[in-house]
Fold each of these.
Amino acid sequence: MISITMTINGQSVRADIPDNTLLVDFIREHQGLTGTHVGCDTSQCGACVIHIDGRSVKSCTMLAAQANGRALTTIEGIGDAQNLHPMQQAFHDNHGLQCGFCTPGMIMSAIDFVDNSDNPDEAAIRDALEGNICRCTGYHNIVKAVQAAVPKMDQ
Amino acid sequence: MYETRYTRPSSTGEAAEIISAADEGKLLAGGMTLIPTMKQRLAAPDCLVDLAGCGLGGITDEGSSIRIGAMTTHAEVELSGMVQSAIPAVASLAGGIGDRQVRNCGTIGGSLANNDPSACYPAAVLALGGTVHTSTRSLTAPEFFSGMFETALKDDEIIVAVSLPKPVRAAYVKFPNPASRYAMVGVFVAVMDGGITVAITGAGQDGVYRHDDLEAALTADFSPEAVDRVTFSADGLLSDIHASADYRASLIRAMAKRAVAAC
């Protein structure tokens, strides 16, 4: 067992967990934050993307212990039903989802990209979402949603 | 994943002590290969030694070379103004690894220690004549890379940094696997003060290697047309579900031409 402390969505969290606990399992099973999804569980699909210190990572490919002492943001931490994040609103406005399973990861990847990109044009958006797989939409509306969110997030 | 014990020492000396004392310890860098391997139960280290607390990050300009700390992520290399201006081919190579999330975690030291035959960094280190600095010594690229997934590293030896000499100009072009973005074939062409070097990754059965015939042809005539005059044999090349050895030989020609044109 190992003791870890971290900040998740602004809340300080402390837990004793088995050393081999994956970060995504800690988030979902221990913290009950089930907005972060497990799709492939092999680092391919990006449904598990969260932010650690503002950068997007795949939480299925990291141990919870590696996140000890760091600041995490999950999909629950960026907005809520009454007060959507501009990226969530843009996905809603542009029908950037169908089944919605990949959407939390898509949104977390897209926010990291827009926050840290100098030139968020369409080609850059498609490149930035390479680590996120959607089996429904064909990506077109996802890219449109991210494009629509760029000016809103700049405000 | 089997049970393991996680440690995060604060120095490479402490890390070496822990790994020496463990039955089957593994150093953990970015974890982009090791964690998936453990999840598939293909690796079962009884002890993980996370190097994140050992102060192995940072990129410094050493005049004729750039020194990159072992725990520097691919994203940090990709976005480093120093790397972009001194060796843009390496910044662009780093920006082509995996996906954005992999680049935010994966490290240059981890990539070199793993020496995957399809990894990109080994081609840069070999073509540029880089030096791998470890906790105990410094190794030239040919000394360091010793075969597919094999390096000269001892069990308790830790990469601390890599120095990459600045080329006159250089380019890296790969044909990425459409799923993994690993190189099916990657060609790093470097025009150095001492001559032209070409390193091939993704193709050789023994991992990264220098292509003597290409180097000779490009020394005589540095042009894409010169690449066409070289004979590319499939002997010694990898053959798998992604590409036959013959196809890889053809890809070496195509990627080499593109790399020379991009130089």
Note: The beta strands of chain A are 2-8, 11-17, 49-52, 55-58, 71-73.
Amino acid sequence: MTADHTIANIYAALEQVMDPEIPVLSVLDLGMITAVTIEDDTAHIKMIPTFAACPAINFIQQRIQEAVAGATGMPVRVTIDKEAHWHSKRLSEAAKEKLRNFGIAPPGIHEGELRAEMLMNTPCPHCGSKNTYLRSPFGATLCRAVHYCKDCGMVFEQFKPVG
Amino acid sequence: MNQQAISDLITKMADDELVLGHRNSEWTGLGPVMEEDIAFSSMAQDQIGHALALYRIQEEHMGGPDPDAFAFLRPAAEFKCCHLVEMPIGSYDFSLMRHFLFDHAEAVRYESLLQSEFAPLQQLARKLKGELKYHTLHADAWILQLGRAGGESYERMQAALDTCFPLACGIFEPGEADQALINDNIYPGEKVLYERWLDNIYRVLVKASLNMPDPAAITPAYGGRYGQHTPHLQPLLEEMGAVLRLDPAARW
């Protein structure tokens, strides 16, 4: 094993792989990476999509492959982890702050079943008001819902909570 | 475990999602308001994605064929989708009511698969459960709003329910191998899912003041699970597979 072939270097490379739809969040911020291992001098990265039908998944998989291979010079295998499933608690606090600054409301914290009321009064990422309502549970991408702020008059998107 | 029975269960689930996904995508650009255009397009994307995930389970765990070829090159008689999903999009009330009845059926089916002894289905159910919640939230909100709106709105929703209900009961057409699947704890069988579905839709319909037809007084639209389809399926399959059939071996 040469000096570059370390788990730390793989993580450093993953920090640079951004979501194509939300370019301020890396695949690590999004909680899409479920395992990183080195076996027989090959990096093996397991990942999960946020939503099952996410059309960006193959693109992201390829970007991870290129980024880690480029940074470490080692062979890389990126596979979809079927045993894990994504839920909004996988987003770190730092990731939620980055989302807010990007103009997308982060998912609220919830336990158990998602109910309609949980999507009400989502704080507006522009003015912070909770005087908002859900316009549609479907937005520009599968992972986003659309809300309206009655105080500042802005339509805004939210990263959907998923349990 | 009865592999053929599991494979048939997966095929009917996937075919329903593939065909309704394509039907729902026909609303892209035509929705009555922008949000609904996006909602039906998003649900179409989800459904086609779920169909792919199911066909992949057959390919990876059961020696099944390539998902694209299976989805787009099969003759209509080998499809196991129910008649509900084959129907043209019609007017918005019809599509909305179909979406409500179908997605509640999906919700009870995947909920039951959380306990499946067949691990790939159990894992997929865990993944899709949270996503499906958004489909039923969307459907319930519109059924309530349009049902409570009175006048023409109420009449059209009731008429759509009367049309869709016998078709939707066809989702739960009993399968030949249901008992084997129940015995192996793959899923609880169509009869159980049907009863749970009736309970769930009834709760929403009552709040919307819509009258659910008497299940004993209607004839469910059966046949789809055994390859007997409406005349609407064949033209849809021709359109869905038109590009792939130009050159099935082409690399994209």
Note: Chain A has two domains: 7-80, 102-159.
Amino acid sequence: MMRERAFLIGTIFPALAVIGFVVLYPLVRSVSFSLTNYNLIFGTHSFDGLQQFSSLFSDPTFYTALLNTLLLSIGPMLAAFVLGFAQALVLNQAIRARSFFRGLALLPWVIPQVVVAYLFRFMFNQSVGVVNVVLKGLGLIAHSLPWLALPHSAPWVVGLIYAWNEVPFFMLMLLAGLQSLSGDVLEAALVDGATPVKQFFYIIVPGLRRIITISTVLIVIWNFNNFTLIWPTTHGGPVNATTTFAVWVYVQAFENFNIGYAAAIGVIWLIFLLVLTFFYLRAVSGSEQ
Amino acid sequence: MRRSVRSQVLVGLVVSLGVALTPALAASCSRTVTLRFANWAAAEAATAKEVNAAIHTFEQQNPCIKIKSVALPYNEMVNQLTVMAVGGNTPDVMEMSSGWPQVLAAQGALANLKAYAPASLLKQNFPAMLQDGTYNGQLVALPLSLTPHGFWYNKALMAKAGLNPNKPPTTIAALDHDMAVIKSKLPGVYPMGQMSDKALYTMVELWPWLQAYCPTPPMANNHLGWTKACTVKAFNWFQFLAKSGYIPIGNDIKANRQLLATNKMVFEIDGPYLRGIISSINPAYTSNAAFAKTFGVEKIPVGPSGVSRTAIDIHLIGMSKTTPHPHAAWKFIQFMVSSPADVRDFLIPEGGIPPLKSSQAAFKSLLNQPYQQAWVKEIIPEARPVPYNAAWDDAANYMIDALQSVLNGSNVKQTLGLLEDQLKRLYPSYQP
């Protein structure tokens, strides 16, 4: 019994050590930095209590970044979910060239995010962007607009980029779910005279509940952490209209070298992520049961 | 007898070998010093060959010193240098852009070059350029290549709009007039470029205009100065440019250069290296004649401040405070700023103007293009430093936010009031 225990501890220990080194240590270090005035440029590094948090909560950028992070996490997820679900339903039917279309639908997911960001940046460029050309051609706008430079349009464009990039993920997850639904139940409903709308709301959606929960929470977490789609397109501008926690931490830590402040933002960010992770883990454990 | 001949031949061979090896032995070193030289020139295809050639020449002239070029991308370089300095791993010598010496010197990473630079060398520099490499009274970097911004204009487009291509606007009032004409006559062409993306370089482009409006621009002499009447006027003008559609909003420098090079923009402020950038974008302007026929450059138009001023945005070179080989490092710095070989093979081909007045005189024949003459005679003497300091990057983010707000139609006075409050927190000792 003792030997078995020692063996178990011996085999688990390397993994625990790695996790401790790459997860726990940086986490503890970040929290400790957030309690200091650590600044690489001014060379300050002393205990500062909760001063960084106090400054953070009195900084209007914090609330802008929080709101942007929440909106850009949830808004594009909802849009991508609806479109992804629609795609999954279509691609679950016995249509011609189904495999080809399934492959095609995955394209936005397989393109690296930096490439996606630059593609959209060029598409929405005021001088040479195709979006302005098309909208002007259709008579919807009179002059080319700097979509990514206007505070009221930039968040929408960034949201669109997120959504475009995430549709295939929902399609893939929900298509897998649809294929695992029992055909007998759907056939029985059809025989009982259930309309396609009723089938969708009373059979398909409840049947996919776990997958929907897991995939939506996952996407919200990913969006919460996304940096690659925002930085190349707007750098968090204009006027912080697309500044999220991820962008703000980067600016504070790696442009201003204000490590203590960046760590304080990181701690608040982490608390939000822990809440989301809690829901994710609950959904996963529910699905396993 | 045979033996004696053999010995004579052998002695002759040894003597000949000795004679042949004498210079090499004289040049050999008891100890070779290796210096790490961090620079962006080696990281860019357009300048890598030139900087490597300069390094090679230096090594030939100084066989006891080897240079290890550390190529870093320009956009990343100040961050990398900061991290290196914090880690106690600062390169021995480093190329820098304006504003970086202050950031690195605040960390105590740069040596005071006054201890090494002879008065004769300092005298050959422009005092304002030396000021750009000064931090708290210490000379922490020497000017390497003079690249302040001038006012570029497209003569062909001016003529097309019915303007006199040989008379570019020299005042802001004339510029406003010309922009109105261009806007009405040339649809699809931007009268002027003004960066407004969230990049620190945006402030470099903005500064000459602030200097045109304010005799003492904001942040100078420990004053914030964002709510002064002249600053408000300058921002009102930026808003007017955006509202009138004279400038594209949100563009970065690359987008504006692209528009200028492809005849879709008439005016833009930029450095002398724009000549090379334009021909790399549009090969039609590769020859000096074709370029000079279409593009001209002038000093910045005069505004209400009454003088033409441009912001100093130059390349500098500095030495690590902790280098174990300060004398070798100084020798290399001196070579880079003053050696005729470096001026001829690196500084001029790179697209800048050599920092020393004596070099500018000595290489007159290589600086004879109209645009180069404009820099030597008109633009460089009018250049003044941007009041860079250690917290500049942080402050610039707020300044760019204010600019973007104003370009998007926000109330100018309120926006600048908010900016002043934000900066007050960063610079508590500054006066309004």
Note: Chain A has a mean pLDDT of 91.
Amino acid sequence: MTKYESFEQDVLVIGAGGAGLRAAIEASDLGMNVGLVCKSLLGKAHTVMAEGGVAAALANVETRDNWKVHFRDTMRGGKMLNNYRMAQIHAQEAPDRVRELEAWGAVFDRTKDGRILQRNFGGHLYPRLAHVGDRTGLEMIRTLQDKTVHSKNVKVHMECTIYKLLTNDGRICGAIGYWRETGRFIVFKAKAVILATGGVGKSFKITSNSWEYTGDGQAIAFEAGADLIDMEFVQFHPTGMIWPLSVKGTLVTEGVRGEGGVLRNSKNERFMFKYIPEIFKKDYADTEDEARRWLDGDKAARRPPELLTRDVVARAINSEFKAGRASTHGGAYLDIASQRDGEYIKRKLPSMYHQFKELADVDITKQAMEVGPTTHYIMGGVKVDGETAQSTLPGLFAAGEVAGGMHGSNRLGGNSLSDLLVFGRRAGMGAAQYVKDLRTTATLKEAEIDTTCKEMLAPMERASGENPYVIVQELQEIMQNHVGIIRNENELSEGLAKIQKLKPRVDNVRVEGGRAYNPGWHQALDLRAMFICSEAIAKAALLRKESRGGHSREDFPNYDKELGKINFVIKKSGPHEMQLVKQPLPEMPADLAELFKGD
Amino acid sequence: METTMSVYRGDKNSGRFVDYKVKQFEGMVVLDAIHQIQAEQSTDLACRWNCKAGKCGSCSAEINGKPRLMCMSRMDQYNDGKPIVVRPLRAFPVIRDLVTDVSWNYEINKKIKPFKPKAKEADGTWRMQQYEVDRVQEFRKCIECFLCQNVCHVLRDHDKKNEFGGPRFLVRAASLEMHPLDTEDRIDMIKDSLGSGLCNITKCCTEVCPESIKITDNGIIPLKERIVDAHFDPVVWLWRKITGKPAQPTK
């Protein structure tokens, strides 16, 4: 038998970004003994990189705002494919979650009358994002981190990667993984597990995501028998840095546009006026003059089209590129220097100023930035119940980016930070209730643990084999070129075939060095999850023969009425089999449906 | 263009510098070079990183002797034909290669008493003006890269980790102490547990802060003044003894 360290926990939270931390705090408050696993050090998870703000209808800046408007914006942004109940709970509870952060010490920027300031963002009808300059995520993660540290019975396990969920009798009973520092194995016996592992962006070549984003949660949930949903919907953020090469993909906050930044092409045209979709025409300005009046605070003026939803803006930049009107390095110009004075820009967007100055030699108070789409977020993920955040596998919960349904086919900026607070808390509550209702505990299967340990050691014990980094680079090329922002039948089929051809090579990777802090080995072990998610994305994208939100099909450029009524659910149907099932959208009750009359 | 990187390889027992040749491209940063080495020459070269945009504070190292974030260090600033030397932070024990054991910092953080807000206004909100929060927002920019801890001679040269919490946690304490809503008294904790008296304000920490936080001037010195007021001003001292309330009636 392979040696391993073991821990016993009521609730094991995997992932320590906003959702994981919020879930741990809640479960601890409800009397649970909690284990919190971080793939990196505590406080370094992806939430720390969120910039623009957290969306909540606090109505501090615009009194016309309320949860119904937020709910409507979210559903419209998701092109009505969202799980309406999740979107409703999210819009209703987000304000309390933001106020709670303030009670825990977060210091948001202030309005003139001393309340939490809110800024404009894409797809939000009113200024709705509570923020701290352009480092909102840092403020959130630090607040939650410090709250967690002082919560009862929360044991933090840093630099620990979970490789597999353990089940018995059709329910969750634990998880197995390894310490990055020593490479030793660790087994958690847990009554409930909450996944809060984030997204999949690392499978694409151009991404704003870090090394951690290898789709671990989606993959281990799928392997354990939980369903996935909406995996075809990947968000390509319209504004990533594109030059120099070193920073290609690095995020440029939507806050730049929220604060008045405009997009131009090589002919100096503000091209977004040409790309306003029918459904949004009544809410967006159609002249530069009106957009200017809106920026100056005229409440009768409509919003500038740069603040359309991310899917729309990303596609527009791509279309300008195809029409030969791209910026020098193949993107668009994002210009705030002509809209706001230098001091204002430095105060509201300090990290953008710093980032461009240091890494691209661009002074954003004087010059335009060059930007282009970057893989940023996956709307799909583990299918969960909106009330409890429980997956289809008893005892397994999911919150934040790893969960699917809330955002439909496209997520609005700022709705991720609020999502992870609202559903992080709900997952903590759901898991605690599940544990309290449990009558018997499932036992771990020793044989399964032993097999898993051997599987993890295999890349180190092979006499010869391939470099895992080569496999990753090939996968990233495939996903970028065949399953990227603009898709079609041929590209997707070819991409899927290439993924399937590349996959067997994962079983032949070999790494040098020992078990202690060995990134090559960690990369090798992340491959399995990357392939499961990539395959799921490509397969669902192939089946969805329409364009909707983050999923754009050249060969089916319009909405399909029938497909607008279904989600694709992915189930495990054999040891290595993926089955895609059409599932009708839950029907919205009349009072909510009323909000969309005339759409 | 080819550049030589001289990178520390080793663990807590022993180590040495190994030279690697990397292809340098426009705009490249030191972290790119480390990634290139990992992918093409030595897959087990250990380093930490996450955001690659100066926001997470994971990739701290010493580059040509200067503590810096690798992701924010452009290669072209070192183009003098000499190898670029990258080694792990000196103030913390090496785990492997560029990765150090920074867990001590997380233990110090636990000692700091949490935020304790005053009661809300009648309308259920807390009101604060932007100018009142500017001061703590500066401290809250900290990304916990621990470069300030690494360069502080109390920790680096004298290894007084049992007596001194270091600049990072004095700034953290300041962010709570100067929070307009906070009511907790941390003065004794700052003096005794964090050992603020050991800082002799050489400002080395401020110099290396990638977030340009004025750690010494805006954080540590005002805390030191509060401690002096609380412990050595007889009127305030008596007030604290009798009422048990903080030294600063208004924060």
Note: Chain A has three domains: 4-235+376-437, 237-375, 454-563.
